[in-house]
Structures are given as C-alpha cells and as structure tokens.
Amino acid sequence: MTWTIAPEPVGSPAAAALWRAYYTEVSDRYYLLHEGRRTDPAELEREIAAHPGAELAPPTGRLLVARYGGEPAGSAGVRLLDATTAELTRVFVHEAMRGKGGAALLVGAAEEAARALGAGQLILDTRSDLAEARSLYARLGYTETEPHNDDKYAEHWFRKDLDGARRTSLS
C-alpha cells in the first residue's frame, strides 16, 4: 500500500472525520492526564463546531489529507499568519496507520503548501504530552523556540525556515 497526499476542502466528509478523530485524541489525552477523565461528549461537539477550520481554506490556507491505500488516514493544515510566516496545525495520523511514514510525508507536503502560499518559515506549537509530535518535528529539522503565542495549551513552540536557513534553537 502507498500514501497519497492531496489538498482537501475543509468541509469534506473525510476532512470532518479526521478533524473529529484528531480533536478527540488530543482532548482525551489532555483530560486523562490532567483530570483523569475523557472529553465530555457535549464539550467535544461544541469545540468541533466552534473550530471548523475555515482558516485552512484557500487562498491563505491549505488542508491536506493523507490516504493510505485510498482510505483517509491523516491530515495536516497550514495557514498564513503574515506575508512570510505560516503555521502548521492539525497534524494527525490515525493510530492504526502510525509507523508507516505518513506523518513525515504530511509535514513535508505541508511545508510545500506553505512555500506555495509564499511563506519562508513555518511555526507550530504543541503540548508536552504529545511527545511523538515533538520527536517528529525535531527529526524533520524544526527547532524549539521561545513562545510565539499565548495559547493556554501550548507548551512547546517550533520553527523551521523553509528556505534552508537554520535559526538558533533553545539550549
């Protein structure tokens, strides 16, 4: 089986299902770690409805869907923050598809999408409990930086210059 990655409309059934799976996983991980419970179903529905992903639609964003053997298996989004900076978000691969190289392919495709939007750098944030994500970003050449936002769930911030230049990482 092979991976294919292509832009997808934010409101497509595949994109909606992947957003639900992503949000459920990261939310459950947070609540299990901090409160010993899973996400309340009503809260999940409110948050999904409140964050449909419009910022990932053209002309200033892209949502990419990865398919493995033709089936939706993962997603990644990019959105321009300014003329030269894009944000990487919603990087997700279904648990059953992990370890097959899809995440690195998705991030690479997101970097290309950011370049096509005119970005020279890509930034992102993540949490401490998402250790697999932090490892992936480091392996792909992202460097940890000082905070670039005040998101209450962000604990680690990363940056990658898309033109090949490297920034200094935190010690």
Automatic annotation (TrEMBL):
Q: Name the species this protein comes from.
A: Streptomyces guryensis
Q: Where is the N-acetyltransferase domain?
A: 16-163
Name listed for the protein in its UniProt record: GNAT family N-acetyltransferase
Q: Which residue spans traverse the membrane?
A: none
Swiss-Prot/TrEMBL keywords: Acyltransferase, Transferase
Q: Which domain of life is it from?
A: Bacteria
Recall the taxonomic lineage recorded for the source organism.
Answer: Bacteria, Bacillati, Actinomycetota, Actinomycetes, Kitasatosporales
Q: InterPro entries of this UniProt entry?
A: Acyl_CoA_acyltransferase, Bact_Acetyltransf, GNAT_dom
| A single MF term (Gene Ontology) | acyltransferase activity, transferring groups other than amino-acyl groups
CDD domains noted in UniProt: NAT_SF
Q: Does the keyword Acyltransferase apply?
A: yes
Is Ligase found in the keyword set? no
Question: Which Pfam families does the UniProt entry name for this protein?
Answer: Acetyltransf_1
